[in-house]
Every structure is written in structure tokens, then in C-alpha cells.
User: Which sequence fits this backbone?
């Protein structure tokens, strides 16, 4: 029935928050063993849903009014385990609510549980969790994508209304594409990060995953906006989006660098959608991001240095295990790389160079956005591999080729299902300038409606 | 010998540097002034640096004559190292907020803003994070000092400057940490860490001077190294090599925007700034003609100098300065009071000084009143009354003198026989008999008068 229909049913009393929760819990009970989307369920969820029902009775249900939200395991929820799907934090129980969780509770959302993910969000397949890989409910036998694998899978399998993911280099958009759901990486600094366990602090953003674009918009309206206590936030109080606008006359950019290395079957699905936008009256124009191919290496240098710094606290003293002794190989690889390139003697050589490339890419996007309002293109350059198939690190990093530029540039980017290739969902990526969320959501909504 | 300093002192702010926790860490049970931010919990993000702390650091920079780095992004750096008191595995330290100042001929290289780590107790293995995140100012000097004595004097001057702002915690409370680098001609530069007092600094330097000179004298090398000062044994020892090879892997903190110091705001701070003590000391010498030693003592505390300048408007500054340096300072030291803590007003002190200056009471009596004033502040007139120190009338004094002469005939005879010292004895008796109310000068005068009168009579009779 879609997010808005569900919200209507909850508000009218046709469906109670408790009933809504229990239906999901039943499905989770049946499907999670296979899917491994949730690592922990919230033992207090029923109590919380009852409280929301009382609030709805008083007309104070909030914007979410009992919608059920799944939370990625790198976001702190008081009393639940934010393990980051790592042995490092397997005994860590959150002592506080992340700012986004506080806001979701305020709006009457019910946290159902903590979802699976790639360990410390270092991965693009959902396979690197210390607690086993996540399945892809939309393409069984294939990876769901990552790192927000459990959140995307939970939405795709109908195990929650909405989910929180995090996106440092594509971790919301990549699994959204592979699982055929909608996802949004907000502009850097629009959604509070307080309570989000770090991967690359200058790139990380929390964002929504949902079955439809209205779901993304609704969750954004609840979680976005300035947190006065936080250092790196934009001066935006709250957001509110109008999705039903016309895309006729909109200037939409396509970029040859996006399709150059992409599987032709994916390009074909995307091109059909671009054609559709043209039919709706959009003006499609070609723009160029000449240094796109350098984004991936700049990204991995920056993320490794920041991740190295962020993981120094896991020294074994406070959380029981020293990260280097218990983590998986991808996490270890990034820590080692970060440690190496941040050495005094190499700083100028790698890290500074990466920051320069980042500035360059940011400039190229901003000049593209002077010509067009949004950019559309593929999300992931290749189709997901089969679960368990061994990939080299470089083959794995290639998944991120088209998603990391948005994080480097700090812009917003969303994904909505565009079609399928051989039964596997393919998402189309819509990127917009900083704070261009309403524009990209509108285009995504038009694409979704015209599917 | 070349000596340079890195001095860290805690800033006195209500809140910590990157969170809202209170800063009275010593007054509360362990781990109560804490939150996810200052305990480095996974996911916690720092708040922008506490404005009051930035302002304090800027004010200190200005007092030290530094060039404040206005209009450019000053990044907060993460300095990584592994120690139990460091909950995130890194300490945040700003790029220099100010450069190139000077204090009493010593060049100040730069001033930073830092955060304090927690307190680790190696015996119990526990960490108290109450102190974690308290703001620190770090002042780095050039190696411009030449002896342990010079270094000690400079450090005292520096602390005086910092305390003048009223924005640091007193050095005596253990809120100071000093790293000192020291080298002798022909030897490598040795850094000594882990010092937390002026006295400790002096002892560490004395020890190093001796140790390095001895090695050089024997023809041995003094290699570049880092040593730790052991307070209990008053010696320095080499630090473990692991600590030496540490690479802090500085990166700009991605969770914080750079600090921007606006020209206009810095000028505002300058406008509010108090006069730095070293400049004030010089001005007191020039304006009032004070001896340098008195000026140094009076400017030792801002409140003391304020008090002085208030009374110097109405009594002779040299007289006042002498009083401050000898009597007032003595009384305060005796009572363990800082000038900022005294209960009496400048007006009360002034009225006391006027009594002494005008000769209404003797300096000795004045000192008694001052003690009382410090103990239990009141109007000096009232104290005089209360202590029975109201000066004797001429008639009363005359009666006393006569009585004393009557009771001490032998001394009178001695005086008349030409023994001048008998006069002192008799004066003492008069003052004692008056309960301290008699002004000794007046008593001597009257005694002499009466004795001479007697001599005249004796010769005629
Ligand atoms: Zn705190």
C-alpha cells in the first residue's frame, strides 16, 4: 500500500502501531533465519509501540505514527547492540541514542531492531559481517550489496516500513540498487552524525532506505536539520519536500564518464529511464566530470586515513577486544593502509594529494550543476555477484566507482529501481547539488511513478 | 646553556572544550562529569570548541604580545597516541592560534588550544574521565633562557601573566604541565617531560645541567633524547624508546570545522584585556618611582596591584609601596590569602594607611590593625577602638611617663649619668604600660623632656 497508505491507516486507527509491529515481527521470525537481515531485535519494541498507540489516541502520534524502522548496526540505540557487525564491538551495548534515533522516537517511529552490515561499513557486498552475510530477497543467491545490506534487505523483504542506512562511498545506494528499493544519501552535514560510528568522518552520512520515494522523503523530514551541538552541520533548521512537482522543463544531465565502464545491460536499463524523463518534458543534456576516474583512489586514501584514526579507540581496553586482533581482512587492510599513508614521511604524498583530488572533483560537480539541475546515471557499474564468490579487493572496490564521487563532493544522491537484468534489480542514481534533495526526490518520484 | 619551554595550563571555563560537561573535576566523584563525547564513546561527535576557551587563549596570546592568526582557517588536529587516559586514542590540539610574542626578552614561538586527557591510576588500573576534555592553553617558547635561575624567574613571570587574565586554574593546584628542552654547548638537545611545578622545573634543570656538563667534561656525548622527570627522586631518566619513536600521525579533525578568529572580535578581546603584569611592573616604576623590587612584588597578583594603585592616589606611593611589600604581603602570606581573596575594601586599607602616614598611630600599631583587618574586616577606626589602640591624649601620656619614671628610678639615674640606652628602656616601659597605645616617638620626646627637666632641677637642688 505504500508508505503514505500505511501512515494513513495508522493515523486513522485502522491499524494500530502494535499490530503493525507484530506483523513485521512475524515476518522477521519466518524470514530472518534465511535472510540474516537483523542482528538483534529490540526487546522493548512492543512497549514502545504501545506508547505510540497511546500518543496516537491523544492526537500526538508524530510524523511517523507507529511506522516501524530498522536501524543499521553502526548507529547507537540506547540499550541495543551497535556492533558494526564486528567482533570488536560484539559486547558493546549503546549507552545513548544517536541524534537521529531521538528524532525518530519523537516522531512516533518504533525501532524494531539492528540490521546486518559489512563490518564497520567497509564493504560493498554485505558479505563481510562477522555474523554472516545478508541475503538478497529480490535476487536470491546474489549479494544484496553493502554496506547497509541488512537495512536494504529488510525493506525489500517487507520486514519494516523504513530503515536507516549510512553512506560513506555508496553504502545506501549500492544495496538499494541491488535489492530494488529506494535509498538516499543526503548532502554532507544535513543529517546529524552524532551517534553514528565512524568510517570516514568527512564522508559519512546517515540516510533513509524505503520501499518508495515518499518513504525516503518522510524519514528525511524527521531526521534532517541542524543539531546545535554538532561541529560539521549545515545551517538548515528542518526540511520539507514537495514531491509531486512536474519534471517537464527540468534540465537533467547525463555524463559519458558514468556509462564508460558500466555493464551495457545496466546502461540500457538506465537509458530507457532517461528516455522516459525526456518524454515527460525534461531537457537532457550531456555534461562531463573529467576526473571521475580518480575519485575511487582518492576515496580509498581518505577513508583509510580517517578510519585508522577512528579505530584507535578500539585498543582492547574499554571494549574488550583490540580491533586488529579480531577484525576481518577488509577492515584490517584499511587500518593498515591508513596507518601507512598517514605516516609523517608520506603525508604530503598520499593524503594531501587525495584531498586535492577531492577538491577538483567537487569543483567539477559544481560546474556541472551550473548547467543542469540533476545528474542521472547508473548506481553500480556491474551486476551483483553470487553470494560466496571470491572477489579481489580491487574487483570489490569497483562496485563503488559511481557512488564515491557524491561523497567526495558532499552532494546528495538517491537511488530508485529502474528495472531488472535477468531478474536482478537495477537502480538508477540521481545526483543533485548540495541541499538539492527536493529536486532529486522529485525526479526519483517521477521515475518511480512512471515505472 | 639553552632552555626552552612548552607550558600547558588549564583554562578556567565553566564547560569542557568539546562538550557541555562541567569542569570542576576535582570536586566530584570519579567519572561523574562525563558524557559520550568526553569519554570517546563510539559514534559521539564533538561540539564546536567552547568559545570561552578560545577567547581565553586569544587573550593570553595578546598579553604575551603575540600576533593572533586572524582571518585564516585554524584546523583542530588529531594527535594520535596510545595511553589509557586517552579515550579516543587521540588528543585534539589546534594549529597555532598566535605566533611570535615575547615576555621579558624571551621569544614566544606559538600558542595552542588543547584538551586535557583523563587521569589514569596505574595502581588500580582505572581511569577517571572527569578531567578529559578540560581546555588547556599551550605556550611554546624559543630556547632563549640561559640558566635554571633565569628559567625559574621566567616561568614565574609567565604564570603571573596567565593568572592575570583570571582565566587559568592556579598553577599551584597541579593544573600546570611543563616540558622543557635543554642543551649545552657541544651537546644534543634533551627534552624533559612530566614536570608539574616551578620548583620541579628548576630541579629538573639543575639536574640536567649537572648531568650534561659532567658527561661533556668526561668527553662523552650528550645525545638528543627525551627524558622524564621523577618528582619523588628529583632526577630525570630516559623515556622508553617506544615513546620516542612515536609518530602522532596528525590529521585535521574531520569532525570539526577550522577555528576562524575574526579581526574585529580579536580587537574586542584586546579592548577588554587587562594590562599585562610585566608592562604594569615597568609602568609602576616609571609612574610612581617605585624600586623595581617593590614593583615586582606589587604586580605579583593583579588584585594586589589594583589595590596599590587605588591607595597610591591618596597617600604617598613610596610609603604605600613599602607597606605593601613589607607589611601587607607578610600578613597575606601568614594568613595564606591571595590578594583576590581579602575581605577588606581598598577604602578601609586606605584609611589605615592615612592614619599611619599622618602619624596618628605608629607603624607598629598600624601592622596590628592590618592583621585584624585581614582577619575580620571592619573600619580601621572601629578596630582601633576594639583593640584599645586609640592614641593617648597628651595628658594621659604625661601621666604614664611620670608613673614609669617613678617606678624605674634606677634607669632614670642611669640616664642622668649619661647612659643614653636607658631612654630606650624607659620608652619600652611606657609603650608597654599603655598597652601599645602610646606612640613610641611621642613617648621618647616626652621622656627626654621630663628627664632633662629633672636634670635641671637636680643640678639646682
Ligand atoms: Zn562531556
Assistant:
Amino acid at each position: 500500500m505504500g508508505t503514505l497508505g500505511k501512515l494513513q491507516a495508522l493515523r486513522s486507527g485502522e491499524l494500530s502501531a502494535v499490530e503493525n509491529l507484530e506483523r513485521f515481527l512475524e515476518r522477521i521470525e519466518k524470514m530472518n533465519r534465511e535472510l540474516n537481515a537483523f542482528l538483534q531485535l529490540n526487546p522493548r519494541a512492543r512497549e514502545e509501540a504501545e506508547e505510540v498507540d497511546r500518543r496516537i489516541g491523544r492526537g500526538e502520534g508524530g510524523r511517523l505514527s507507529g511506522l516501524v524502522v530498522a536501524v543499521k548496526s553502526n548507529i547507537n540505540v540506547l540499550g541495543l547492540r551497535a556492533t558494526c557487525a564486528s567482533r570488536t564491538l560484539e559486547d558493546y551495548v549503546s549507552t545513548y541514542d544517536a541524534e537521529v534515533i531521538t528524532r525518530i522516537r519523537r516522531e512516533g517511529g518504533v525501532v524494531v531492531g539492528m540490521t546486518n552490515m559489512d563490518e564497520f561499513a567497509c564493504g560493498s557486498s554485505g558479505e563481510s559481517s562477522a555474523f554472516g552475510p545478508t541475503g538478497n530477497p529480490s535476487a536470491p543467491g546474489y549479494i544484496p550489496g553493502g554496506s547497509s545490506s541488512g537495512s536494504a534487505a529488510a525493506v525489500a523483504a517487507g520486514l519494516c516500513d523504513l530503515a536507516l542506512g549510512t553512506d560513506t562511498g555508496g553504502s545506501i545506494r549500492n544495496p538499494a540498487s541491488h535489492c530494488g528499493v529506494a535509498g538516499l544519501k543526503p548532502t554532507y552535514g544535513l543529517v546529524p552524525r552524532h551517534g553514528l560510528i565512524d568510517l570516514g568522518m568527512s564522508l559519512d552520512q546517515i540516510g533513509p532506505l524505503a520501499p518508495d520515494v515518499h518513504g525516503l522523503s518522510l524519514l528525511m523530514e524527521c531526521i534532517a536539520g541542524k543539531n546545535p551541538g554538532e561541529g560539521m552541520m549545515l545551517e538548515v533548521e528542518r526540511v520539507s519536500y514537495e514531491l509531486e512537482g512536474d519534471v517537464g522543463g527540468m534540465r537533467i544531465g547525463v555524463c559519458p564518464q558514468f556509462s564508460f565502464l558500466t555493464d551495457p545491460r545496466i546502461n540500457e536499463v538506465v537509458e530507457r529511464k532517461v528516455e522516459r524523463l525526456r518524454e515527460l518534458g525534461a531537457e537532457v543534456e550531456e555534461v562531463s566530470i573529467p576526473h571521475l576516474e580518480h575519485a575511487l583512489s582518492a576515496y580509498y586514501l581518505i577513508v583509510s586515513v580517517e578510519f585508522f584514526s577512528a579505530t584507535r579507540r578500539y585498543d582492547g581496553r574499554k571494549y574488550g577486544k583490540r580491533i586488529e586482533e579480531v577484525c576481518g581482512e577488509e577492515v584490517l587492510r584499511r587500518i593498515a593502509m591508513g596507518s601507512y599513508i598517514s605516516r609523517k614521511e608520506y603525508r604530503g604524498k598520499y593524503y594531501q594529494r587525495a584531498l586535492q583530488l577531492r577538491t577538483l572533483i567537487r569543483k567539477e560537480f559544481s560546474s556541472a550543476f551550473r548547467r543542469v539541475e540533476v545528474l542521472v546515471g547508473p548506481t553500480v557499474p556491474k551486476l551483483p555477484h553470487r553470494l560466496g564468490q571470491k572477489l579481489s579487493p580491487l574487483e570489490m572496490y569497483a562496485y563503488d566507482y559511481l557512488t564515491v564521487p557524491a561523497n567526495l563532493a558532499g552532494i546528495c544522491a538517491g537511488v530508485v529501481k529502474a528495472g531488472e537484468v535477468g531478474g536482478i534489480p537495477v537502480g538508477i542514481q540521481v545526483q543533485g547539488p548540495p541541499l538539492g534533495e527536493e529536486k532529486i526526490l522529485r525526479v526519483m518520484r517521477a521515475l518511480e511513478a512512471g515505472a | 646553556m639553552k632552555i626552552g619551554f612548552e607550558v600547558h595550563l588549564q583554562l578556567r571555563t565553566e564547560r569542557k572544550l568539546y562538550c557541555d560537561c562541567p569542569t570542576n573535576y576535582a570536586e566530584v566523584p570519579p567519572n561523574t562529569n562525563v558524557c559520550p563525547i568526553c569519554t570517546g564513546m563510539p559514534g559521539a561527535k564533538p561540539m564546536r570548541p567552547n568559545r570561552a576557551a578560545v577567547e581565553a587563549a586569544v587573550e593570553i596570546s595578546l598579553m604575551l604580545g603575540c600576533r593572533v592568526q586572524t582571518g585564516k582557517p585554524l584546523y583542530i588536529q588529531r594527535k594520535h597516541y596510545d595511553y589509557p587516559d586517552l579515550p579516543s586514542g587521540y588528543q585534539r590540539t589546534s594549529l597555532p592560534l598566535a605566533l611570535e610574542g615575547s615576555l621579558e626578552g624571551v621569544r614566544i614561538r606559538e600558542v595552542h588550544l588543547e584538551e586535557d586527557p583523563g587521569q589514569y591510576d596505574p595502581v588500580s588500573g582505572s581511569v577517571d574521565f572527569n578531567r578529559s576534555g578540560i581546555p588547556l592553553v599551550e605556550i611554546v617558547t624559543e630556547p632563549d633562557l640561559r640558566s635554571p635561575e633565569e628559567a625559574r624567574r621566567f616561568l614565574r613571570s609567565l604564570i603571573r601573566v596567565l593568572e592575570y587574565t583570571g582565566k587559568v586554574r592556579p598553577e599551584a593546584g597541579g593544573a600546570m604541565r611543563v616540558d622543557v628542552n635543554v642543551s649545552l654547548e657541544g651537546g644534543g638537545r634533551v627534552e624533559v617531560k612530566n614536570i608539574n611545578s616551578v620548583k620541579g622545573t628548576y630541579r629538573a634543570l639543575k639536574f640536567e645541567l649537572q648531568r650534561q656538563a659532567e658527561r661533556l667534561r668526561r668527553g662523552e656525548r650528550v645525545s638528543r633524547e627525551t627524558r622524564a622527570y621523577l618528582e619523588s627522586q628529583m632526577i630525570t631518566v630516559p623515556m622508553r624508546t617506544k615513546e620516542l619513536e612515536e609518530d602522532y600521525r596528525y590529521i585535521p579533525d574531520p569532525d570539526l570545522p577550522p577555528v576562524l578568529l575574526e579581526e574585529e572580535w580579536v580587537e574586542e578581546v584586546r579592548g577588554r584585556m587587562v594590562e599585562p603584569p610585566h608592562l604594569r611592573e615597568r609602568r609602576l616604576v616609571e609612574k610612581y618611582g617605585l624600586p623595581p623590587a617593590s614593583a615586582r612584588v606589587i604586580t605579583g597578583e593583579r588584585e594586589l596591584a589594583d589595590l596599590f594603585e587605588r591607595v597610591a592616589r591618596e597617600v604617598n606611593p613610596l610609603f604605600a609601596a613599602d607597606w605593601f611589600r613589607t607589611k601587607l604581603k607578610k600578613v597575606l602570606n601568614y594568613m595564606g590569602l591571595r590578594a583576590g581573596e581579602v575581605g577588606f575594601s581598598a577604602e578601609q586599607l586606605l584609611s589605615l594607611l592615612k592614619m599611619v602616614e599622618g602619624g596618628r598611630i605608629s607603624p607598629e600599631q598600624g601592622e596590628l590593625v592590618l592583621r585584624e583587618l585581614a582577619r575580620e574586616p571592619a573600619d580601621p577606626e572601629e578596630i582601633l577602638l576594639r583593640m584599645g589602640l586609640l592614641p593617648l591624649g597628651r595628658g594621659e601620656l604625661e601621666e604614664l611617663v611620670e608613673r614609669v619614671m617613678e617606678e624605674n628610678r634606677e634607669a632614670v639615674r642611669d640616664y642622668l649619668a649619661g647612659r643614653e640606652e636607658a631612654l630606650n628602656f624607659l620608652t619600652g616601659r611606657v609603650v608597654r604600660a599603655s598597652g601599645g597605645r602610646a606612640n613610641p616617638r611621642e613617648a621618647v620626646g616626652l621622656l627626654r623632656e621630663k628627664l632633662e627637666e629633672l636634670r635641671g632641677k637636680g643640678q639646682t637642688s
Remarks:
- Chain A touches chain B at residues 74-76, 82, 84, 89, 92, 95-96, 98, 192-198, 200-202, 229-232, 305-306, 308-309, 311-313, 315, 317-319, 339, 342-344, 347, 351 (CB under 8 Å).
- The radius of gyration of chain A is 20 Å.
